């Protein structure tokens, strides 16, 4: 075993149980039991922990699968057998004696049958085992069963010989022979059937006062339940269901309602007697069949009742929640300027009559949780923008300050709205002029100060350069490729020198290319005196890299660079360009 072997005697009770369950779950049962039992002491604490652990349903299922066994009883018999074998192997006779002494007679009998019928080494050689179990040896070894095919064959033979006995034979000597044969065969059949009847009765007698296999209450297997405890089980199931819920869903959403909300009452009147009578009134053959097959045969349900008005109110609520028009897909920008792709939703119209019928039927046979699909008609939605579904992360942002007043403030706000919600597909080149311009009065721009021919002047669209420079900074931080950019004549004060971008009329444009394999979505917005540009795309576009633009002054000009950073280290520094500015006189 690869796990570290612990001394289980040094653990507390919970730790012991968890350790034993872990061994059973991860390892072969023989290895697990051998590891445990070689350290067993006279207090039987390890054996007791093993017996508690195998009552866990998960461990039982694991052992069933591992040992290729069909039911829980077989698993426990197998575990008992291995415990006996290992204690016998390690000559722990005192512990073996104490172990057998602590078991009740029914379990001793079960162990005896298993060991004697499987002719184990323990059953042949261990004196302590035989001291407790030998009283069951003869019964265990003599037990045999005829299957249904054999019983049917004997019945057919009996009928055939009865038919022969009714014929009139001409020769009396032949009659005597035939009659003798018939008597012998009938006696033989009667003996076999008598033994079969005895065997069946003995098998069924094990369930005296208990519920036979295959009988269920909702999802509860009642096999072997004492009839005296049945009332308590019904009451517990009743209380468990009361805390349950019903989930109703359609293509777009699901709604949950507790049984308490729906004012559902659960009736168990007569159920106790109904289960008891069914268990008692079955024929002998039917009882034997249930025991031998040991599979679900009959299920009883607790009756539920509810007010018709409550069902009507529930359906009205479903109409309000489920009836929707189709919503097409697209990019959504929330109030906090977060961007995400919305795949939209198909429309739905509830079929009130059919849905109510399904609900009523479901509530009549309650389980802890019922889940049903609402009936209705579906209206498909239009999907146009699935290519944008990869957009899921803001990869860069830049904010600049401006005085949000007068014509310049108007022009910046207007340009920002034009830039907002811009989509650039992979390989496409963005043109500031095409998206934000033209900058004339016909496009809503007002006269404001600009730099023209090395002088301060006034023109429509004054201020749009600040948005261009803010976008340029966001573009550089996103690692996107610049196609066309010029610096201002005079250095602006809203971005670092050497990192601005100017535009003018149709002669000076600012452009960059989407060199990602994913679409780009640009949001641009004004908040008070602050202008912000965000660039969104897929989180894999930058490949885990970040980008940092900066500039340095050298020989009368500003030289701009872009650092590429990966895992906290600069892996590349790229030269962007040289910007020369005039000085204001």
List the helices and strands and how they pair.
Blueprint: H1 13-26, H2 29-37, H3 45-53, H4 57-67, H5 72-89, H6 93-102, H7 105-117, H8 121-125, H9 127-133, H10 137-142, H11 148-166, H12 172-205, E1 215-217, E2 220-221, H13 230-242, E3 245-249, E4 254-258, E5 265-267, H14 271-281, H15 284-293, E6 298-300, E7 303-305, H16 308-322, E8 330-333, E9 339-342, E10 347-350, H17 352-364, E11 369-373, E12 376-379, E13 393-401, H18 406-419, E14 422-424, E15 429-431, H19 432-436, E16 447-452, E17 455-460, H20 464-477, E18 481-484, E19 511-513, E20 520-527, E21 530-537, E22 545-554, E23 557-566, E24 569-579
Parallel strand pairs: 1-6, 3-11
Antiparallel strand pairs: 1-2, 3-4, 5-7, 8-9, 10-12, 13-21, 14-20, 15-19, 16-17, 18-19, 20-21, 22-23, 23-24
Helix pairs in contact: 1-3, 2-5, 5-7, 11-12, 12-15, 16-17, 18-20
Mean of residue pLDDT? Answer: 85
The strand line-up of the biggest sheet is: 13-21-20-14
The biggest beta sheet reads: 4 strands, antiparallel
Determine the fraction of residues in helical runs and give it as a percent range: 40-55%
- Given as residue ranges, the uncertain stretches (5+ residues, pLDDT < 50) are 145-158
User: What is the radius of gyration?
Assistant: 43 Å
Strand fraction equals 15-25%
- The number of helices is 20
Total number of strands: 24
Basic shape: elongated
Q: What is the terminal-to-terminal distance?
A: 88 Å
Structural class: alpha+beta
């Amino acid at each position: 075993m690869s796990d570290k072997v612990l001394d289980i005697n040094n653990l507390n009770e919970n730790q012991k149980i968890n350790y034993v369950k872990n061994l059973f779950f991860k390892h072969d049962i023989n290895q697990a039991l051998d590891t445990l039992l070689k350290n067993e002491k006279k207090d039987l604490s390890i054996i007791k922990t093993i017996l508690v652990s195998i009552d866990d349903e998960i461990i039982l299922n694991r052992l069933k699968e591992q040992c290729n066994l069909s039911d829980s009883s077989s698993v426990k018999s197998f575990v008992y057998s291995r415990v006996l074998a290992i204690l016998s192997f390690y000559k722990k006779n005192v512990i073996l004696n104490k172990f057998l002494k602590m078991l009740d007679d029914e379990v001793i009998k079960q162990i005896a049958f298993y060991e004697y019928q499987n002719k184990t080494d323990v059953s042949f050689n261990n004196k302590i085992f035989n001291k407790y179990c030998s009283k069951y040896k003869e019964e265990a070894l003599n037990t045999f069963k005829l299957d249904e095919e054999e019983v049917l064959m004997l019945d057919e033979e009996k009928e055939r010989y009865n038919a022969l006995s009714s014929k009139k034979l001409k020769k009396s000597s032949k009659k005597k022979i035939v009659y003798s044969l018939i008597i012998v065969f009938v006696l033989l059949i009667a003996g076999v059937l008598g033994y079969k009847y005895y065997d069946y009765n003995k098998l069924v007698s094990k369930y005296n006062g208990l519920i036979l296999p295959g009988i269920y209450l909702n999802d509860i297997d009642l096999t072997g339940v004492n009839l005296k405890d049945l009332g308590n089980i019904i009451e517990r199931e009743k209380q468990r269901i009361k805390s349950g819920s019903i989930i109703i869903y359609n293509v777009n959403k699901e709604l949950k309602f507790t049984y308490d909300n729906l004012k559902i009452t659960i009736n168990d009147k007569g159920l106790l007697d109904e289960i008891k009578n069914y268990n008692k009134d079955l024929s002998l053959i039917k009882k034997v069949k249930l025991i031998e097959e040991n599979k679900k045969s009959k299920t009883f349900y607790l009756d539920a009742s509810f007010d018709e008005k409550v069902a009507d109110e529930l359906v009205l609520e479903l109409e309000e929640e489920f009836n929707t028009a189709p919503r097409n897909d697209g990019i959504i920008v929330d109030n906090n300027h977060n961007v995400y792709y919305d795949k939209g939703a198909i429309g739905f119209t509830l079929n009130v009559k059919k849905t109510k019928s399904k609900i009523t039927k479901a509530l009549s046979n309650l389980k802890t949780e019922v889940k049903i699909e609402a009936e209705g008609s579906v209206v498909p939605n239009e999907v146009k923008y699935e290519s944008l579904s990869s957009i899921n992360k803001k990869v860069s942002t830049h904010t600049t300050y401006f005085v949000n007043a007068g014509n310049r403030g108007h022009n910046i706000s207007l340009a920002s709205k034009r830039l907002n919600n811009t989509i650039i597909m992979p390989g496409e080149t963005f043109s500031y002029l095409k998206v934000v311009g033209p900058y004339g009065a016909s496009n809503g721009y007002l006269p404001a100060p600009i730099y023209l021919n090395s002088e301060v002047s006034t023109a429509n669209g004054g201020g749009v350069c600040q948005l261009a420079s803010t976008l340029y900074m966001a573009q550089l931080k996103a690692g996107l490729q610049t196609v066309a950019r010029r610096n201002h004549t005079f250095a602006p004060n809203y971005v670092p020198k050497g990192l601005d971008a100017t535009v003018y009329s149709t002669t000076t444009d600012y452009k960059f290319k989407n060199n990602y394999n994913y679409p780009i979505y640009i949001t641009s917005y004004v908040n008070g005196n602050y202008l912000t540009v965000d660039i969104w795309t897929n989180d894999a576009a930058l490949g885990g890299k970040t980008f940092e633009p900066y500039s340095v002054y050298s020989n009368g000009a500003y030289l701009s660079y872009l650092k590429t950073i990966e895992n906290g280290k600069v892996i590349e520094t790229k030269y962007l360009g040289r910007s020369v500015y005039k000085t204001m006189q």
